[in-house]
Design brief:
alpha+beta, five-stranded mixed beta sheet, 2 helices, 5 strands, 41% strand, globular
Length: 122
């Protein structure tokens, strides 16, 4: 693995721990289907959480702010694919969350934004 992959995995590991502490169960990590991809899919009593994780080593950039409309549209398309391939989640309410992870000076800071965006094009 290269440095970017190691950093990304560390961020996703931290995000998973955070989500589990919040009572969510991780049902998929690094889901891939064709060109579709999702970082984390988790479930709780409210519904199915599609979680985009952004990890940065640079403290001057808020990782959550890097999830623009284009990325949101890609995540929504991937979520549709995921649900179509996993029919047991067909009736679940979908939430699109973001976890921003900043790693600096041996410190990991997480910012969790539940329902970070609501796609009107779902």
């Amino acid at each position: 693995m290269n440095t970017r992959q190691i950093t990304g995995k560390a961020g996703e590991d931290a995000a998973c721990r955070l989500l589990e502490e919040k009572g969510m169960m991780i049902v998929s990590r690094n889901y891939r289907s064709g060109h579709y991809e999702l970082d984390i899919v988790a479930v709780d009593k409210a519904g199915l959480h599609i979680v985009e994780v952004r990890t940065r080593l640079d403290q001057t950039i808020n990782p959550c702010s890097t999830v623009d409309r284009r990325k949101q549209a890609k995540v929504v398309a991937a979520a549709k694919r995921f649900v179509s391939e996993n029919e047991r989640f067909a009736g679940y309410e979908l939430f699109f969350d973001i976890v921003g992870v900043t790693i600096a000076d041996d410190e990991t800071v997480l910012e969790y934004i539940p329902q970070a965006y609501i796609p009107i094009y779902l």
